[in-house]
Amino acid sequence: APITPHRPIQALPDQLISQIAAGEVVERPSAVVKELLENALDSGATQITVRLEEGGVKRIAITDNGRGIAQDQLPLALARHATSKIASLHDLENVGTLGFRGEALASIASVAAVTVTSRTADAAHAWEIVGSHNGTVAPSSGAPGTTVDVQDLYFNTPARRKFLKSEQTEYGHCAEVVRRIALARPDVSFSLSHNGRTIDQWNISELARRSAHILGNDFAEARLALDESAGSLRLHGFAGLPTASKARADGQFFYVNGRFVRDKLLVHAVRMAYQDVLHGDRFPSYVLALDLDPSLVDVNVHPSKIEVRFRDSRSVHQFVFHAVQRALAQTSATAFGSVPA
Ligand code: ADP
Ligand code: MG
């Protein structure tokens, strides 16, 4: 049998705890982009700039024009399990912000070189903190809002660094995260640059325009607007017509209370709605947002929160299925010339 050294039980050092958590929260550069974008949105920003270098591994710098972090709060922003978003179990069960765990910045700061520069509306100038919650807070410059600058991801955890893919692959994942979030928030402007080159820029607009911009003309020209409510459930957005379907499932964007999710139940409900109009080997394209009372959905299932759990999954499935099916049925009766029964 392998001999493991026998050691007394001891509490792990803070830095190591954060590095272990970082394994879940910060899988790859795109996960950092997601966390920083969510923080920017939670701060009420209407303008967000994402600058990436070398697929995000060398640098991820995200600037927002949101509410900012006060000078005396900067160390707390980088401290583990410190958050301004929830304070109680009741808050957790009704969470309305994208973040709430209070561990993203601490985790990121444990595996990369982080500088947070921030200025609140009433401050005379910006302040910055470098490295960790133990870093000193020093005067800085800049407009109201926050910049989180993350450099040399995994520089101190070489084993993790080895799992990173090529610059192009990592960049692709980062860009996908920006697109997902930009689609959810047409009321916010975004810009994305890579290695000093502006790649995308989306001005504040409507979902109709933003989704045309992000999913392309094929989608814009063959989609149905839908907006249905039942009780506290509302489903709205655009369902692509069969002509906008794809050979891959890369045109599917589903949001629950503003959060991009990839949820089996929801994918299935939409798939079923398309059953009569779409060949089994084609994937529908859609941008659909489901809004419901936050207490009816548990977003605390996974650290990256891509999966959710509904309190009443049956009725959510039914609602989504019928809403999409009804929208599609209208067009098959009109656009395709078939006679309604
Ligand atoms: P969480 O988002 O779960 O609260 P984070 O570690 O992501 O945890 O952030 C910690 C805290 O730092 C947030 O609760 C928020 O108060 C503050 N913060 C982080 N990013 C920003 C930002 N871009 N603008 C304003 N405040 C921010
Ligand atoms: Mg956060």
From TrEMBL:
It comes from the Bacteria. GO terms for cellular component: mismatch repair complex. GO terms for biological process: mismatch repair. Residues 211-329 form the DNA mismatch repair protein S5 domain. The keyword Secreted does not apply. Keywords: DNA damage, DNA repair. One of its GO terms (molecular function) is ATP hydrolysis activity. The keyword Cytoplasm does not apply. This protein is involved in the repair of mismatches in DNA. It is required for dam-dependent methyl-directed DNA mismatch repair. May act as a 'molecular matchmaker', a protein that promotes the formation of a stable complex between two or more DNA-binding proteins in an ATP-dependent manner without itself being part of a final effector complex. Belongs to the DNA mismatch repair MutL/HexB family. This is DNA mismatch repair protein MutL. It comes from Janthinobacterium psychrotolerans.
